[in-house]
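User: structure tokens for this one?
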Amino acid sequence: MHPGSHRHRDLTKPPASVGSNAPIDPNEVAKTGVPFGRAGQAQEIANGVLFLASDASSYMTDAELVIDGGMTGGARPRWS
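Assistant:
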């Protein structure tokens, strides 16, 4: 699994308008950098893990489950 920008993760590069001691809002950063326009939720990753651990994925072999808001799927980011 390849998570994109998620609420529980630290973001490495804050926007230029954010001061060095100001908290970073993952949803504000994701609006411009993630094609889905929002940060992912922990539950969205958990749903993927639950699927892989369930019988519903029992016939799967050698596949990636990408849960990243479209960042690696070829969608165009919203950078201006």
